[in-house]
Amino acid sequence: MQTATPVPRKAPRPRADALRNRERIVTAAREMFVAHGPDVPLDEIARRAGVGNATVYRNFPDRDALVREVVCSVMERTARAAEEALAETGDAFEALERFAHAAADERISALCPMVSSTFDQHHPDLEESRERVESLVARLMDRAKAAGRLREDVEFGDLLVGVSQLSRPPAGTGCESLERFNRFVHRHVQLLLDGMRAPAPSVLPGTAVTMEDLRQG
Questions:
Q1: Where does this protein bind DNA (predicted)?
Q2: Quick check: 97 pLDDT over 80?
């Protein structure tokens, strides 16, 4: 007598409301990391997301898991913005400009505190996302340089640091003031970009900042 082979059961799909709650948590965490850094209390994130503490821990068992999700989500959207810019066939510097403004909207400043954070920066998901972003933006910048539109003495790190610093509120500014601060972000990002145009009107002090420089602190 043969025993029937059990048919593996499919894992249940997350409910729509559960997915919405997860996205609300990640969005709230991103905003609070921008304003206060990655050590902001998780109950404050829950309050901003409009969910209970238990919902946060059900989705993210610890702070590292939430930080990793925020970093990966920001890098994923930033990578998509870079891909869209690379797909453009017009002026190479204008494509780079559009990417920089899109990156500011994605709150890439949420990534900066992670450089010095104690969480696992070599997690496979983070490594893959980081390498993808670096490669795409390097191609964007190389294309603008080849067209003679981007000064030769700047690198990926210069753009990342500039946009990150300009898209985060001054120290001590809470999330409540973030929306008011955002009115100035694109004005200041454009000032940065104008300083990166070729031909360069001046010689920059120091050397171009690479991602390796940023990782080494």
A1: 41-60
A2: yes
